[in-house]
Amino acid sequence: MNDCLSLNATAGRVAHLAHEKEEKRIQERRRHLVYLIAAFLREQGYSSTAESLFKEAQLSRDIHVCDNIDLETIILEYTDYHYAKYNKYPKLCKKIEVGNVAPNVNKRAERVSKIYSKQEDSRVTEECNNISKNKVAQKHTISTWNELNLGMTVTPIFPAESGDRVAIQVPMSDETFINNERLLKPIGDLYPLSSELKEIADVMSREIVQQNLNVHWDDVKGLKDCKMLLKEAILYPMKYPSLFNRRLGFCKGVLLYGPPGTGKTMLAKAVATKCQSTFFNITSSSVISKWRGDSEKYIRVLTDLAKHYAPTIIFIDEIDWTTTKNIDHTSSNSEPARRFRAELLARLDGLLSMEYTNVILLAATNVPWNIDIALLRRLEKRIFVDLPDETSRLEILQSYVREDLYNSPEILKLAEETEGYSCADLKLLCKEAWISQLRPIWASLEAKTISVNNIQNDGLINAINYIVLAKTKVKPITKHMNVQYIEWHKEFGFSK
């Protein structure tokens, strides 16, 4: 009988030791999880939140996460496992009612209160308050030196002594560029996590031009009236918003129309460079979907993001693909096109309009007479981008030749003879002249009589006769269409 009792006692001790070891592993795993969270917060730039987590969880400064592991990798492996087992990705977060949040928070607060004494709570609260004061003092330094920030709000984990929570808002500038790329503030709580609209917002955010296009007004030759009208319609309202009010506000839609190759896209790039605002470059592939209802969601998310990142310019090139007018003066007869058109017009001008938001629609087209009348009304300022005049043609040609040929009689005559050529036609003309200039060099290189290293190439045309020869091969493609644009401009266009 004593042997049985001894065996039972031994089995009990083994079970107790195994239970203690399992509890220790659980505690160690949870402790490691806190370190992973702290490391993830620091990687994402939430240094103040990570510091507060170190203080509350009493983490050791001597322990670091291993190089081959991180929180994002763990979640990625779990989602892959879940998809392989159930053929669908797991739903990591969900939206809950406000009333359901309190019980979990209260239970966790009770556990924390059992672990920490009141003295420890007051000590950590005092330290968090000191961190808050230091952060508030650093706000002026950040704005002065224009340092990098992630547009985040840092809230202390423990409330202040007065019971009020202290929130430190670090604003983010939409004009910040690093490595020639724009830094955008996060979407935040614009949409619930794991929602369809959140996924669409991530896709639409890729349409934001994040590079500095570095195209200035001087890079656009001629078109002085067009540039002045664009400044009055877009640049000045964003630069001097106090001069505009709700009764007499700035126009919300601008249309650039004219023959192909006259510089409409270049003007849009110059606007994006000078305004230093969020610039959406929208094409048909960005907002058109074969699935029912998706196109309307894309338009909704686009306008929501435009308001979120305001001031914003939405640029739609070749806007005639959106809503066109048929010969019988009816809108596009396909059901997806009608739904897309209705959502676009409602967002531009309706109960859900962007009238009092700092968002401007900039559009360009080569066939303005095909645009739906309802959309045309919302594009308030319609600017005609005409073919270049003689002075503009001379400036364009001079940009491709050597400086000693700027005022030669041949180039002045050439500028006069190229009437009807668009900017793209003149560029193509100079390209062909450049090819003619390189042909003798290619022949020598193929014959191996010279070396590439011995060739001095400044990238400019050194003789006008090359351009004259190219003129016999390159013909203008829009010369005879300009009359139709002029007639439409007289009826619907905007003149300075």
Automatic annotation (TrEMBL):
GO terms for cellular component: microtubule; spindle pole. It comes from the Eukaryota. Residues 250-389 form the AAA+ ATPase domain. It holds the Pfam family AAA. Gene3D superfamilies: 1.10.8.60, P-loop containing nucleotide triphosphate hydrolases. Keywords: ATP-binding, Coiled coil, Cytoplasm, Cytoskeleton, Isomerase, Microtubule, Nucleotide-binding. This is Katanin p60 ATPase-containing subunit A-like 2. It comes from Acromyrmex echinatior (Panamanian leafcutter ant).
